[in-house]
Amino acid sequence: MEPKIPFLEATPHSKQLVVKGKPFLIRGAELQNSSLSSAEYMKDVWPRVVEANINTVLGSVTWEHIEPEEGHFNFKELDRIIQDAREHELHLILLWFGSFKNGFSTYTPAWVKTDQMRFPRVKLRKAGGRMEIGNTLSIFHSEAPKADAKAFKALIQHLKEVDEKHSTVIMVQVENEVGVLGDSRDGSVAANLKFNAPVPDDLLTFLTKDWDGLNNTIKGNLHYFRSQQSIKNSSWESAFGSSTATDELFMAYHYACYLSQVAAAGKAVYPIPLFTNVWLAKSDNDINGNPVVVSGGATPGEYPSGGGVSSVLDVWQHFAKSLDFIAPDIYQADYKNMCAAYRHRNQPLLIPEQRRDEYGARRIWYAFGSHQAIGTAPFGIDTLEEPHNPFRNHYGLLKKVESLVLESQRRPNSTIGFFFDEAVDSRAKSESLEATLGTWKLKIEISFVFGKPGPGFGMVIHLHDSRFLLIGEGFQVSFTSSNPNKPFTGILHFVEKDIVDAETGELKTIRMLNGDETRNGRSCMMPGEDPDYGGFPIAVTIPARTKIAECEPYALEWDDSM
């Protein structure tokens, strides 16, 4: 019987990662760029990772490390890494730093860096007609993708040989935040020939026939294209107009094809899930065209031009055919908008890089609860000292309930995730959100305190009928029946729970809650660990304990006879 390798399994409205035959939730963390190059260095890191309730480590495998001489591969250090991860019962997502890392080609082997004739560089167009050689391989020559694909295939073939029976490595990221920095496109002779040649028919056909499926951001950049009477045999500027958006589209199409060629070589020998990540743009928009505040530069070239930002995400999803999905790195971006944007076309959501502080940690609940994320990963976990690692608590709670979360992710419209940032002062207007689960309308808001409201986070899972599971802290939920003939709503049961068996999700009752804990039947309160009483002499708000509770609202009809 063949071993079951990791794969993505379709659900009614997303996909789930399956590892060793079971759905798997990635409680991930990414290392600093070069940490995974040394098994010796990692000896002190593995125990801290386990203590932080992390189950998957993301780290780089670099082209220059495994193929220092062309055609001669060395996987000895990687084998030690994989073995040590396995001994600590951890999984790995390997990040292939091949041709590109953060828009540059700094991790290519010396024999690639120094052979400009065989591996030409990007040419950057500067003010006054001046040209510069970029620190990035040009994607308009055949040798670089062939050599990269050969090395990537060797890596994936080696993983098959040493890990297929174990599934320690569950995914591989192909390259890292690709694109051109310093210009909106490659200005080399080879690139110009492609730019002035007719736009490939497959791209024109895709944009025309799949117009209704494109996100609003790319549509907004294609007004010139839509106004053309005839676009066949047209150059890129003739088809799309003269703009940095055209340059970006040009680079995105060719980068997607380049990465697909590299990924295909690995997929052919060992088809575990493959993806690439994206350096988001300050000008990036969500799927509805609403602007968001993001770091990374406002125009193509300030951020890597050609990477899978939302304005070209459709192109990446269609032409990087060997990749399973495109993943956003979310630091300063509007977290909610970016989660929504990268669920486009029902692709699964993985956030391979995000903030490692408490601000970032509480946002993971939104990704898992509202967008069925398969995983999240703060960046730089190995240089974060244990007392300052908020993911230990967040992942600890997620670890307890993950079987329940995974089950709920397979049922459409059964979960909602959320976070609330700390209020500026006690007079600040409380955040809230509304949702409908089953026949109930929910209002979720920051937990009531007499003093300054604290931050909150969590998830509500609709179990069945009128029963709900509440996970997290610092929030409260009130219910209203969707039946207009039932104007009165109360709390029938509110029970603090804890996990008996994390694998099955079996729960046990800890306490029956009522009175102050329900604000006299008005809502179910999931308080923070240290509620601010604001000088009020009566402690009506209890601190959080298990952060898991089950509740059941009820509703009564109006009766004129009574």
Detailed description of the structure:
Mean pLDDT is 93; it is low at 284-294. Helix content is 27%, strand content 27%. The chain has helices at 39-42, 45-51, 63-66, 76-87, 110-113, 143-163, 189-196, 201-209, 216-220, 223-227, 236-240, 244-267, 313-319, 335-341, 358-361, 364-371, 391-409; strands at 7-10, 15-19, 22-24, 26-30, 56-62, 91-101, 121-125, 131-137, 169-176, 274-279, 325-330, 350-354, 375-378, 415-420, 432-437, 440-446, 456-464, 467-473, 475-481, 488-501, 506-512, 524-526, 548-556. It is of the alpha/beta class and 562 residues long. It starts with 6 loop residues before the first strand and ends in a 6-residue tail after the last strand. The strands form 5 sheets. It has an 8-stranded parallel β-barrel with strand order 4-5-6-9-10-11-12-13, surrounded by 7 helices. The chain is globular. 49% of the residues are buried. It contains 17 helices and 23 strands. The longest helix is centred in the middle third of the chain and has 24 residues, at 244-267.
Distance between the termini: 69 Å
Overall structural class, as computed from helix and strand content, comes to alpha/beta
Helix content: 25-40%
Q: If helices are DSSP runs of H or I spanning 4 or more residues, what is the number of helices?
A: 17
Number of strand elements: 23
Proportion of strand residues: 25-35%
Q: What is the overall pLDDT average?
A: 93
The unreliable regions are 284-294
Strand order of the largest sheet: 4-5-6-9-10-11-12-13
- How would a crystallographer describe the biggest sheet? 8 strands, parallel, barrel
**Dominant shape:** globular
Mind telling me the C-alpha Rg? 26 Å
